[in-house]
Design goal:
Elements: E1 4-9, H1 21-34, E2 38-45, H2 48-51, E3 55-66, E4 69-78, E5 81-87, H3 89-92, H4 110-125, E6 136-140, H5 141-144, H6 146-154, E7 160-165, E8 173-174, H7 178-181, E9 195-196, E10 199-201, H8 202-209, E11 212-215, H9 218-223, H10 227-230, H11 234-239, E12 244-246, H12 277-287, E13 297-304, H13 310-322, E14 326-333, H14 335-347, E15 352-356, H15 360-369, E16 372-375, H16 385-392, E17 395-399, H17 402-407, H18 413-418, E18 424-426, H19 431-446, H20 448-460, H21 466-481
Parallel strand pairs: 1-2, 1-6, 2-5, 6-7, 7-11, 11-12, 13-14, 13-16, 14-15, 16-17, 17-18
Antiparallel strand pairs: 3-4, 4-5, 8-10, 9-10
Bound molecules: adenosine-5'-diphosphate.
């Protein structure tokens, strides 16, 4: 298989700078795709956190003015990644969050900042740097989405393009005056161009012109073509349906491996699943829950926002306690939800306990100790916590939306008798349907053999990047074979 060169354009990348799932995907794909003989090099902004970690940065391209600011492209390595870094201090020399000022507001020049990123990506894709050529330019989210747009309006020979949507809620929508400022021609301001509600839509433009569009699960790919989930872009996505594909995210199964995880109390594997019990006891102690192997221990690890549907769980807590189950919650977000869960913990000491905050290490012990992980999201492009749950034998109870629908096999009678169930799904995302799923979960828990089988099925499911990497590689190769 010949080697393929892909330029990825991402506004964040693990382990250098991360605010969400995009960083994980951008960070994991290069290693996973290397095994498929695809060489990925990633263009990222030169935030201070990035600049500080670069190994042997070398200038490879200079702009006297890029969107009105001096800039250069550096070639470098960092965190095991091959990078191009857009060093434009006027745009990216700001500490903290990549998109927001210290007051939590969008930076007022985000249109210029990420147009500069995409412009540099388009130029690299067209061969601006000697000895570098990309077969495919792969842009992520609205921050990279103008790359296919620039390549379209530039005309001439261009590499093929892919745009990935990680969450369609974020679209990059700016005033009409942005058009001239970012160097797009006046005729781009039309419905078949970047025009979006009388302004300029970055994601919208990218969805118009990318050769292929991907999102992070097949079900989310279908959902965003509907008014309910499409956030006003469903019509355009329906027009482009033939170019749209869903590929689920994987997890790093060397970091998330219960046999070697140093954050958990007792290491275990599918072969030594009874060892899990030590983690349950440790977790109960850590949370101040009654220490006992009897009750089903339900866990939540989540941002506490409307998307995640945890208000539904809050409504069902009295029932959960009445069934003799326990809840351990780790999360932070909306104040009303934080207060709701804290009040429930006070009302049910020993049975409900909450830790408000973000604690990566504790999240490992939780996955190792809980019996079930609940993810009642109203929408979920892919979701990671259910994947960690599967790997750790914490059986997922999930709303049947997005990536949750694609990664968990519901323990219905057919799946149980075929021996393939890995969790429980419910639909719609409502309190009564969650209540019903919890009841089913507690019945499963009471059936020791079926519960063990379901847990083991989850632990043996392949949730790594290996499968997704093959799908991305196939997509790149198909694209590279066709003419622009
Ligand atoms: P989203 O990106 O929408 O928040 P995902 O399920 O895709 O949801 O990813 C969430 C990631 O953040 C997971 O790795 C999860 O373990 C982690 N996480 C969320 N909340 C917390 C928390 N309070 N403490 C530790 N880890 C958390």
């Amino acid at each position: 298989m010949s080697s393929l060169s892909v330029l990825s354009i991402a506004s964040e990348i693990y382990p250098l700078i991360k605010t969400g799932g995009l960083a994980d995907v951008a960070g994991a794909l290069p290693e996973a795709l290397a095994r498929e003989n695809v060489a990925i090099r990633t263009l990222i902004p030169g935030y201070p956190a990035v600049m500080a970690k670069l190994e042997s940065p070398t200038p490879v391209h200079v702009y006297s003015s890029l969107m009105g600011a001096p800039a250069r492209v550096l070639a470098a390595r960092a965190g095991g990644l091959d990078l191009f870094v857009l060093d434009a201090p006027q745009f990216f020399g700001r500490p903290g969050n990549p998109y927001l000022d210290v007051g939590g507001r969008d930076w007022p020049d985000n249109d210029l900042r990420f147009a500069a990123l995409a412009r540099a990506g388009a130029d690299l894709g067209k061969g601006a740097v000697a000895n570098y050529a990309a077969d495919v330019v792969h842009a992520h989210d609205w921050q990279g989405a103008l790359a296919p747009v620039f390549l379209h309006y530039d005309g001439g020979r261009r590499p093929r393009t892919v745009l990935t949507i990680h969450n369609i809620a974020f679209q990059g929508h700016f005033p009409a005056a942005t058009l001239g400022a970012i160097g797009l021609p006046a005729h781009a301001m039309q419905i078949d161009g970047v025009e979006y509600f009388n302004g300029v839509g970055y994601l919208k433009g990218g969805l118009m012109f990318a050769d292929r569009i991907t999102t992070v699960s097949p079900t989310y790919a279908r959902e965003i073509m509907t008014p309910e989930f499409g956030m006003a872009l469903d019509g355009l996505l329906r027009v482009r349906a033939d170019a749209v594909e869903g590929i689920v995210n994987g997890i790093d199964d060397s970091v998330w491996n219960p046999a070697t995880d140093s954050e958990i109390a007792v290491n275990y594997s599918a072969l030594r699943i009874e060892m899990r019990a030590g983690n349950k006891a440790a977790l109960q102690r850590r949370f101040g829950l009654t220490v006992s192997s009897d009750p089903a221990l339900v866990g939540v690890i989540s941002r506490l926002t409307a998307q995640k549907g945890l208000d539904l769980l809050l409504a069902e807590l009295p029932d959960l306690v009445a069934h003799g189950a326990q809840l351990a919650l780790l999360g932070s977000g909306d104040k009303s939800l934080e207060e709701g869960f804290l009040a429930a913990a006070q009302n049910h000491p020993g049975a409900i306990a909450c830790m408000i905050g973000y604690d990566e290490n504790l999240s490992h012990l939780m996955q190792a100790g809980i019996d079930f992980i609940v993810v009642p999201s109203r929408f979920e492009p892919c979701g990671l916590t259910q994947l960690y749950g599967l790997r750790y034998g914490a059986t997922p109870i999930v709303a049947r939306v997005g990536g949750l629908a694609d990664t968990v096999i519901d323990a219905n009678d057919a799946a149980l008798s075929a021996g393939v169930a890995t969790g429980l799904q419910f639909s719609p995302p409502s309190a009564p349907s969650l209540a019903h799923a919890l009841k089913r979960a507690f019945a499963l828990y009471a059936d020791e053999a079926a519960m063990r089988r379901t847990r083991l099925n989850g632990m043996r499911a392949d949730v790594s990047w290996r499968g997704p990497a093959k799908q991305y590689a196939a997509l790149y190769r198909t694209l590279a074979r066709t003419d622009a």
